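Here is one chain, start to finish.
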Amino acid sequence: MFHIALFEPRLPPNTGNIIRLVANNGFNLHLIEPLGFDLEEKNLRRAGLDYHDLANVSKYPNYQEFKNNMAGRKIFACTTKGKQFYDKKIYQPGDVFLFGSETSGLPTEVFDSIPHDQRIRIPMMPNNRSLNLSNAVAIISYEAWRQQNFHGGN
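Its structure:
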């Protein structure tokens, strides 16, 4: 299936919501440290409800370790700085969707390491900064899954 990667997430409720999301769409979740919270934090567990045991979550000490683990996979940077709308790309199982932290997005060195044609964005009204992280993950992940005819779902 597909992979969601969160680069240095800061807000436990967002990550909890994403854990619940990936438990329901079958994606794998990758957390790139440092995190802005402890994985046992109450707000994280509350947002994820009882889905933590149903989700496949991996943690990496840094971006390089994550990138090494994802070798051979296409990584899409999901960012307001992307030039292409997310729904104009064709996704394949195994693709990775990389999201930056809620407070600062993807750092320049990570953003610059992603090919231009793999930098995608969600359209928004002019002059708005960004969507909530868990909402953005939901929008993009369900488009990728839709392209696979929701394989494995019911």
